[in-house]
Amino acid sequence: MALLEVNNLGISFGGLRAVDNFNITIEKGDLYGLIGPNGAGKTTVFNLLTGVYVPTDGSIVLDGVKLNGKPAHDICKCGMARTFQNIRLFDKMSVLDNVKTALHNQVKYSLLSSIIRTPAYFNAERNMDKKAIEILKVFGLDRICEYKASNLPYGMQRKLEIARALATNPKLLLLDEPAAGMNPTETQELMDMIRFIRDNFDIAVLLIEHDMNLVLGICEQLKVLDYGRIIAEGDPVKVVNDPRVITAYLGE
Questions:
Q1: What sign results for the dihedral spanned by CA atoms 133, 134, 135, 140?
Q2: Which residues are 60's β-sheet partners?
Q3: pLDDT tens figures, 7-22
Q4: Fewest Cβ atoms closer than 10 Å to its Cβ: which of 9, 74, 184, 222?
Q5: Rg of the chain over CA atoms, in angstroms?
Q6: Residue 3 in contact with residue 172, Cβ under 8 Å?
Q7: Predicted model pTM
Q8: How far apart are CA 144 and CA 133, in angstroms?
């Protein structure tokens, strides 16, 4: 069984068919890209996969578990995490605490323990601190773990958002335009980091991206959306040279 199986997924908003008959199969360890012109429905697909929207039709199965109708926090517990096109950090919280928020889906102590501060609470908090620091080291953010998230440069904020998603212990990581706003040096570092995450954390990655250098540099499979429908898929080099894809991006 594949890690993710999506069949005939679709959603309508009134008379608008935003995504129609979307299918994708992702195996463990895959590095998959989803591209398309602005407004093609890419982020809508992410919102359907992660429970932000409820599909009008179709099915989503992650590692044998059907996700249709589950709330976003349950989908996260099932093993799917995401980042956002517009960075959504807890700006006033520290770098460390941003990552620790993602670890609370694995917390073992009870609400009562947290209120009266039992030994179980302190042990769990120490373990979360340790795990959060280990994740931050992957991104080179451990030395600034006490900084406020809002004080980080843009590129580091992007890294922190990915680190927070990774802290949920996902089987599948969804990255929505991770290179947006990055310079070429930062983009190259991001490419190396995505490969490292896939190889060392044993997870699959599905990313939306407009930077073709990044897409062609790391993606092993590619799908192209236009007006909510898949118009091309397969080998990235062949896909980006498909006349239908060129027309979708550049017009007739």
A1: positive
A2: 6
A3: 999 999 988 899 999 9
A4: 184
A5: 19
A6: yes
A7: 0.90
A8: 10
